[in-house]
Amino acid sequence: MRRMAMHTVATLPRLSSTELSQILLSNTSSNLDASTPPSKIAIVDVRDDDHIGGHIRHSIHAPSHTLDHKIPELVRKLQDKETVVFHCALSQQRGPSAALRYIRERERLLGPNAKTKMQSGSGVGEVMRKNKELEGKVEDKDAEWEDVEEEGGKEQRVYVLDRGFVGWQERYGEDSRLTEGYRKEIWKDGYWM
Hints:
This protein is an alpha/beta fold.
């Protein structure tokens, strides 16, 4: 019988809205309004009826009540992504729970080859460095945000967006490069659910 890694909600790494915005902005060299989603990162929004008032550009909407049948599909669909970020409104229950279910299903479906990186730290530097490499613009190795390169099999980082979409919209709601469908009037009095 195969043993699964013991991940818990407490061990799930968090990614701040600032760190996620840096990854997204570095991932799209000049045209954030492009219709093509980023190739190395996926953002999964698991909000249900509260999926109104905007969403992170190029995020995948997978309502938490559909995850029983959506998680295996997400694992297959996102298997080539280097980073997967889950969130709900506040990222206190649904987002972390979805991330945990995703990690466990990924390990179940992909077996021992499923490497999920679970450590503190955002990995922003590594993602930004890889984006520069893809653009052919590798710069100074000691530049800001530089992380150590890792070799080996296909690895995936799984995060929970700290403070969820509520925290995101406070900072980036009106930034059309990062947020789609934002409705300021819905958020003027804060989170309502």
